[in-house]
UniProtKB/TrEMBL annotation:
Involved in the modulation of the specificity of the ClpAP-mediated ATP-dependent protein degradation. One of its GO terms (molecular function) is peptidase activity. The gene is clpS. This is ATP-dependent Clp protease adapter protein ClpS. The keyword Protease applies. The lineage of its organism: Bacteria, Pseudomonadati, Pseudomonadota, Alphaproteobacteria, Hyphomicrobiales.
Length: 102
C-alpha cells in the first residue's frame, strides 16, 4: 500500500489487486442406469474422496437427484467435469457432471 502525495498535494492510493479466483461447485446428477459402484469409483479417483465419503455422496445424489463433489477454481473444476464425462462415455454410462459458479 502506498500513500502518495505528489506535487499537487492530492492524496492518492495505489494497491496491487490480488483478485481471488472465482470458485465453482462441481455437481453429479442422478440417472437410472449408471451403476452405484461406478459413481463411487469416480468420486474416489477424480475427487479424491475416501470410500466412506464417496458412498455417502453417491447415495445423496441417488436420493436427492443432485449432489456436490467439491468446490474448485475454474480450471480445476473444468478438468474434473471433463474427466468424469470422458470416463462415463468410455464406459457407456449416462452419468452427467456439471459445474456452477459458487
Ligand atoms: N441411480 C443410480 C442407480 O440406481 C445410481 C447413481 C447415483 C447414478 C449417482 C448417478 O450421479 C449418480 N444405479
Amino acid at each position: 500500500r502506498d500513500e502518495g502525495a505528489g506535487q499537487t498535494g492530492v492524496a492518492t492510493k495505489t494497491r496491487t489487486k490480488t483478485k481471488k479466483p472465482s470458485l465453482y461447485r462441481v455437481l453429479l446428477l442422478n440417472d437410472d442406469y449408471t451403476p452405484m459402484e461406478f459413481v463411487i469409483l469416480i468420486l474416489e479417483e477424480v475427487f479424491n474422496k475416501s470410500r466412506e465419503d464417496a458412498t455417502r455422496i453417491m447415495l445423496s445424489v441417488h436420493n436427492q437427484g443432485v449432489g456436490e463433489c467439491g468446490v474448485y477454481p475454474y480450471e480445476v473444476a473444468e478438468t474434473k467435469v471433463t474427466n468424469v464425462m470422458d470416463a462415463a462415455r468410455r464406459n457407456q454410462h449416462p452419468l452427467q457432471c456439471v459445474m456452477e459458479k459458487q
